[in-house]
Write a structure and sequence with these properties.
Layout: E1 27-32, H1 35-51, E2 57-62, H2 65-78, E3 84-88, H3 93-96, H4 105-110, H5 121-126, E4 128-129, E5 132-133, E6 136-137, E7 144-148, H6 149-155, H7 166-176, H8 197-206, H9 226-240, H10 248-253, H11 256-261, E8 267-270, H12 275-278, E9 286-290, E10 299-300, E11 304-307, H13 315-326, H14 331-337, H15 345-348, H16 351-354, H17 364-368, E12 373-374, H18 382-399, H19 404-420
Parallel strand pairs: 1-2, 1-3, 10-12
Antiparallel strand pairs: 3-11, 4-5, 6-11, 7-8, 7-9
Length: 424
């Protein structure tokens, strides 16, 4: 399927300023994902079309998140946005703040398919602005640790079963980092983790720190506090002190997901979205376990939501698809593919998600972690803030041996002006 944005023509406003709704037209849905994820969404669309003869839904596939954001910005500027788009909660507010989204709260309140109370509140809250739900979340996932159980057994290391600490993880990662062919170079790493705010955040919270100074109206990162410094230093030491993670060049050659699939990585920190890919593994057994802790359990929210542009000409048909996609009919389809931890509580607790016959065996770990999940700040220019912080964390983890104090100072200097320019 082409990844080019399908133009629906510029909507023509009525004398009241409203965009006329043509419910007979096709619904264009913009999203991105890996091949296994796109396959899952195609299954969802096929099921919807089969249940609603005469309706047409066209998936528009962006190459990646940057491409998705570029396409959205261009299409909004040109007055031809898709009817729906799927976006992570960390990135939707740049559009909501401009007033180009159709607030979904009234439709959600009036729905006969589900009610707001049917969703995990942490996912719904992430898409709420000015007390109104802007987009409907399809999933609610925490980070977990995917483990290669065969590697643990071969090394004589007891696989984690929850209730472990970051020091426990580090000890396992050291024991599982090996030069398997004896050439003097590590070819099996104990852990895979990307250098990002999204990976650092749960460590900071678990150590008793805060990521930013104010979750609702942040003005700066708070990585200079003693608890945050403790967590950040642990993170930075994974490479330069302990050498348990692949370096930058190795990561660029083979990312952590691919390295895990190929049997060259014992553990990796990922959300539920990796499950659909990992189910292709035939050569070894694997499972998931909840994140370790420093002092208290803490996870970071991964949630994507369907947003509806005000300029959509097919709002009625788009809402019908959205209700199907995240409701009791469509949510089990994506859940069974391994793509999502459904945001709808009833489906998350059903066999569609917890299916004991499908890997991972410990899918309940995702649900067990929900009470301790926290979201990253949702501000209009968070994509830029996060990107700047990630670049500095990347240098400290992979390129130059820097202290947590140095990284915190550089992150603060680079991002404080960006926080100040964020729209309310």
């Amino acid at each position: 399927m082409s990844s080019a944005l399908v133009s629906c023509g510029k909507p023509v406003a009525s004398s009241t300023g409203a965009v006329p709704d043509d419910s007979s037209g096709p619904v264009d849905v913009l999203l991105f994902g890996s091949p296994s994820e796109i396959k899952a969404y195609r299954e969802l669309v096929s099921a919807f079309v089969a249940a609603h003869p005469g309706q047409e839904v066209r998936l528009i596939e962006a190459a990646d998140r940057d491409d998705l954001l570029t396409r959205l910005s261009t299409s909004f500027a040109g007055g031809t946005p898709p009817d729906l788009f799927l976006i992570n909660y960390r990135f939707y507010k740049q559009f909501a703040a401009k007033g180009v989204l159709e607030p979904i709260g009234p439709k959600l309140d009036a729905s006969s398919v589900f009610r707001p109370s049917d969703f995990f509140e942490v996912a719904l809250e992430a898409f709420r602005m000015a007390d109104v739900v802007q987009c409907v979340p399809q999933n609610v996932s925490s980070l977990v640790v995917y483990v290669n159980k065969n590697m643990f057994a071969e090394a004589g290391v007891t696989p984690p079963s929850g209730g472990w600490t970051w020091q426990d993880l580090l000890a396992a990662a050291k024991a599982l980092t090996k030069d398997r062919d004896g050439d003097g170079a590590v070819d099996q790493y104990g852990l895979g983790v990307e250098p990002s705010v999204l990976r650092v955040a749960p460590m900071v919270w678990s150590a008793g720190g805060e990521l930013v100074d104010d979750q609702t109206r942040p003005t700066r990162f708070s990585l200079d506090s003693p608890p945050a410094q403790r967590a950040l230093q642990f993170f930075l030491d994974l490479k330069f002190v302990h050498n348990v993670i692949p370096n930058e060049l190795e990561f660029e050659a083979t990312d952590n997901e691919t390295r895990f699939v190929n049997g060259r990585l014992a553990m990796t920190l990922q959300s539920r979205r990796s499950t659909s890919l990992f189910r292709s593994i035939k050569d070894f057994d694997w499972d998931v376990v909840s994140l370790p802790t420093f002092d208290v359990p803490a996870g970071v929210l991964h949630a994507d939501g369907y947003c509806m542009p005000k300029a959509s000409r097919h709002k009625q048909a788009a809402w019908q698809f959205l209700e199907f996609a995240v409701g009791p009919e469509g949510a089990p389809i994506l859940a069974r593919t391994g793509r999502t931890v459904p945001s709808l509580i009833s489906v998350a607790n059903s066999d569609a998600f917890l299916n004991p016959g499908a890997k991972p065996a410990n899918s309940r770990a995702f649900l067990d972690g929900i009470p301790s999940i926290r979201s990253l700040p949702v501000v209009s220019n968070w994509p830029t803030i996060e990107k700047e912080a990630d670049l500095i964390i990347e240098v400290g983890l992979w390129r130059e041996r820097k202290s947590a104090e140095q990284v915190a100072r550089e992150v603060d200097a680079a991002t404080s002006p960006l926080f100040a320019s964020a729209e309310p």
